Amino acid sequence: MKDTKNPLVSVIIPVFNGERFMSEAILSVLKQNYEPLEIIVIDDGSTDGTAALVKIFEGNIRYFYQKNSGIAVARNAGVTKAKGDLITFIDADDVWAKNKLEVQTLLFENNPEVELAMGLLIQSPFLGFEKLCTMNLENMKGLFATQLGCTLIKKEVFQKVGLFDEEMPTAEDLDWLIRAREAGIEILVHKDIVQFYTMHAKNITNDRKLSNFYMLKAYKKSLDRRRKSGDENFRNVPKLGNFDKLFEYWQTKS
Asked: What is the pTM for the complete model shown?
């Protein structure tokens, strides 16, 4: 889909000490069959070779360094710097499916009322983009997760929903997506696999106590907002293991 009439897509990569994995994440963006796009790297105070690695791709990436402030601050910095009409994210240790942008931009083209598209992911060990992109995804079952790497978002959504909560060191994505749903954003959940979520020893989700605490905090914040507004009919978020219920909950597009 190499057509300069396409809307500009801003790809935001927040990173902290991502030297080991990041080149594969960047490669999976550069190899997308879509243009134009801009890649914005927000380096959240890395002390490893992240900055030097990014320079290998110089000319294709806008790089910004900030003192270590957390992933929500890094995401917000990327959103404020983004020039695209469409915004998406990829974490430095993940990899996109090779047709992620082509699939999701086509969904927007065919459904102009949609404001946010959200696909599925596969959990994978660190295999690299070249190996992952040879997989036949049609024979694989994707997982639903509130992962921003699975989304494509119209920029104006951030004007309606606001930015990420900078007091959330994790589950900031879940918190923001719940707020988007509460704001009445038109969300289209589709069953295409668009991302490989890399499993490794340093995944923040490995700290179950921390992850569960902030997931519950995101749900509690939502409950408090709904109670304050008098919205008694707003459904609770279903458990992550129930795909059908999750699909029904997040699919706001009729």
From this structure: 0.89
